Amino acid sequence: MSADTDSTSQGSTDRPRILVVGAGGIGGVLAGTLLAAGHQVEVLCRGAATANAIEAHGFRLRGSNTPGTVPTHEVVIRRPENARGPYDYVLLATQPTDVEQAARSTAALLGPEGRMVCLQNGLCELRVAEVVGRERTLGAVVSWGASALEPGVFERTSSGGFTLGSLAGPLEPSVERLAPILEAAGRVKLTENLLGARWSKLAINCAISSIGTLGRNRLGALMRHRFVRRLALEVMSEVVAVARQEGVELEVVSGTLDLEWLALTPRERRVRGSKGLLAKHAVLLAVGARYRRLRSSMLRAIERGQAPAVDFLNGEV
């Protein structure tokens, strides 16, 4: 079950306290956008260069639907022990490889009714639930892209919103209260099938992120090649098959991308061409056009000398 939120809904009249953990592309754009919208936000940033740049110049946001430069005043926290908790929401925007440590280091900062929210790709909610419990774990599946161009400068590379839900399943007040806050950065869809939404996004990430890393290029350029699109379809099909075996009911991504339909049939794997294959290649061409500026976060990690998150994506499958 899912439903779009009413963007006019305000929930409680008091302002929830929010801690964004991580100031990469997604974390930087989200923190800056929420601050610009008047929300009570602090950001935990361990990188000295990025923290210094944000403190000196604010969040410098680039790309469409961003507020530009957002001034800051004492919102950067460099270590968890310096955080001014408790927080109503801790938004985890680290790399998947760091999510468990981030959850452990900030768990004590949650308020009595506080919730930890996973923004990462993969199945990170299951890992975070081991730290704070399923009932306190939310997931926000991000359907837009962002990059950190340089310390303190963040570019939103595509439009989109969030699919928001609780790992425990049914919608609860904490989910409905968070939804209008995230609306500042994109339309929010509520779901009672968070794992279904996560597995659908996982199918895309396993293909797009891995191919983007191997191809060392942006998505738009790669998706022009037929063999790249075929490889993406094969990878997505494998993820869909595993999800079915796990008993996961896949959700439609961004309201249009049906992974159950996109997965290759046995016949489509045998023939050289068909109307079905043509339609599926057309969908991937459209995805490549929409997210043409998207660059794999795993590739960026490798370029920075960090471990890529492949074990949290393809490795999960």
Could you characterize the architecture of this molecule?
The chain is α/β, with parallel strands linked by helices. It contains 12 helices and 13 strands. It has helices at residues 25-36, 48-57, 99-106, 124-132, 173-182, 194-215, 219-222, 226-245, 259-262, 266-270, 275-290, 297-303, and strands at 2-4, 17-21, 40-44, 59-62, 69-70, 76-77, 87-92, 110-118, 137-142, 146-150, 153-156, 162-166, 188-191. A 9-stranded mixed beta sheet has the order 1-13-12-9-8-7-2-3-6, sandwiched between helices. Helix 1 links the parallel strand 2 and strand 3. Helix 6 (194-215) packs antiparallel against helix 8 (226-245), helix 6 (194-215) packs across helix 12 (297-303) and helix 8 (226-245) packs across helix 11. The model is unreliable at 1-13 (pLDDT under 50).
Largest sheet: 9 strands, mixed
Q: Runs with pLDDT <50, length 5+? A: 1-13
The proportion of strand residues reads 15-25%
Main sheet: which strands, in order across? 1-13-12-9-8-7-2-3-6
The gross shape turns out to be globular
First-residue to last-residue Cα separation = 25 Å
By DSSP (H or I, 4+ residues per run), the number of helices equals 12
Number of strands: 13
Q: What percent of residues adopt helix (DSSP H or I)? A: 40-55%
Oligomer: single chain
Category by helix and strand content: alpha/beta
Any idea what the radius of gyration is? 19 Å
Written as H for each helix and E for each strand, in order along the chain, the element string is EEHEHEEEEHEHEEEEHEHHHHHHH
The average pLDDT is: 91
